[in-house]
Amino acid sequence: MSHKRVVIGVATVDGCYFLESDVGRGEWVRRGPYLSGESVNSLRYDVHSGSLYAATLTEGVFVSRDLGGAWKLSSRGLHVRKAWTIGVDPHKEGRLYVGTQYGHLFRSDDSGASWVEVTSLYDAPHRMEWGVDWGMGTLGLAIHTVKFDHEREGRFYIIASGNGVYRTDDDGESWKPLRSGLLEGCQAFNQRSQAGAGGGESLETHLRTVHKCAHKIALSGRDPSRLYQQNHCGVYSSQNSGEAWYDRSPDDEHRHGFGITVTDDDTVYTVPAYQGICGEHNSCVRGELKVYRGRRGGGVWEALGAGLPRSVHTCVLRDALSSDSLEPPGVYFGTTSGEVFASVDGGDSWRRLLGGVSRIQGVESFVVD
C-alpha cells in the first residue's frame, strides 16, 4: 500500500492553507490558515530536503520544515522584501533563488538562511529598458518566475514582468533574452479599443506597452527543452529551450490568460481571461470559468467547464494553476474569489475543494512520502 500523500498549497493575500489526500485524491483534509496577516504570493516545495518555502509580498521569505505547520522568517540579506517567487535548484542541494519587486534576483546556498543578490542581472541584455517600475497592471516590474531545467545543470529561466523570458546556462553568470517569434504588439480580441477614463491611453497603446509581458512559463517534464508560455498576446511553445517561439493559442477570444501548466504527457492547461480595459481585465471571459486543455502541446484545444461555476467575476492568477506528477495527473487552480478546484481525470470534470478564503494568488501541488 502506498503511503504517499498529495498536498496542495494555497497562497492567499492573508496567509496560506493546505489540502491533503492520498494518491486516490478522493477525500481531502484542510489545514490552516498559517502565516495569517502575510500576503503569500507563492509556495515552493523542496523534494530533497522536505522544506517548504513561502514567498510573501510583506516580509520576504518564510520556511517550514514540517509541511507548513510552523514557519520561520528567512529573509536575511534580502534588501527587497516584496518576494514574488522562489525557485529550488534540483541540481544543487540547498540552493534557492527568489525573485522580488523592482527586478531583483537573490540566491541562497544554505536553504534560505541567508541571501545574496545575483548582480549579473544588471548586465542582462535590454536591462536598461526595464526602468525602475511601471504603472501598468497590478504587478509592476518584478522577477515573478524562476523555472529550472531538471536535466541540464546550470540552466534556468526567469521572467521579468513586462520584459519577457530570460535564460541562463551558467548558473546566472550571464543571461539571454528569449523573444524570437513573439508578437511585437497584439490586438485586443475581446475588448473595444478606446481611450481610458479621463482621456487616458488607448487599449492599443496599453497592449503595445506591455507586449513582452510574459505571464508564466512551464517546462515539459518529458523533455525540458519544450517550453510553454502564456503571455499577454497568447499561448506559445518552443521546442528548443526558448530560442524560438510559435503561436499555439486557442481561438482569438481566449488567447489571454495568466497561469499555465503542462502534465507529463505534454497536455497544456490554461484559464483564459479578458485582456485590456481594467473594468473587465482579470475576469474570466464572458463570465464563464473554463479551463482550456491543449493536447499535443496545444495542437488541439478544448474548453472544459463541467463542475465549474457560471456567471462569475473571477480570475486565475499566474501562480494559481498547478498539476501533479501522478497518473492520471491532477490539475488544480485557485481563483481571486477564494475557491480551489481540482480535476483528476484530465479536466473532464471538476470539483470544488475549498471556498470562502481570501483572494488566492498561488497554488502549488506536490507529492510527499
TrEMBL record:
It comes from the Archaea. InterPro entries: WD40/YVTN_repeat-like_dom_sf, Xyloglucanase_GH74. Gene3D superfamilies: YVTN repeat-like/Quinoprotein amine dehydrogenase. Signal peptide: none annotated. GO terms for biological process: xyloglucan metabolic process. This is Sortilin N-terminal domain-containing protein. It comes from Candidatus Marsarchaeota G2 archaeon ECH_B_1.
